[in-house]
UniProtKB/TrEMBL annotation:
Gene3D superfamilies, sorted: Hypothetical protein (3.30.920.30)
Family per record: Belongs to the HicA mRNA interferase family.
Keywords on record: Endonuclease, Hydrolase, Nuclease, RNA-binding, Stress response, Toxin-antitoxin system
Protein name: Addiction module toxin, HicA family
Organism: Candidatus Portnoybacteria bacterium CG23_combo_of_CG06-09_8_20_14_all_37_13
UniProt KW Hydrolase keyword: yes
Taxonomic path: Bacteria, Candidatus Portnoyibacteriota
Length: 77
């Protein structure tokens, strides 16, 4: 199983959009809620200069029920 990359929030949001997620709402200035039409949703920490740690990225992928391979494929597109 490939290792998850360390990403900025912008790259993660772009990949999730490719997988059918849309921005539902922004909570304050630091968290973005993204939702899929089938009801899956997750919260993404948005801090302009900080990376999203691998553990947090793994938790987000588990929240939205996406495999690492599926996510990495969307990230490369």
């Amino acid at each position: 199983m490939p290792k998850l990359p360390i990403l900025k929030a912008k790259s993660l949001i772009k990949a999730l959009r490719k997988l059918g997620f849309v921005e539902c709402r922004q909570r304050g200035t630091s968290h973005l809620i993204m939702k899929h039409f089938d009801g899956r949703r997750t919260s993404i920490p948005v801090h302009s200069s900080k990376d999203i740690p691998r553990g947090t990225l793994g938790s987000i992928l588990r929240d939205v029920d996406i495999s690492r391979d599926e996510f990495l494929k969307a990230l490369r597109q």
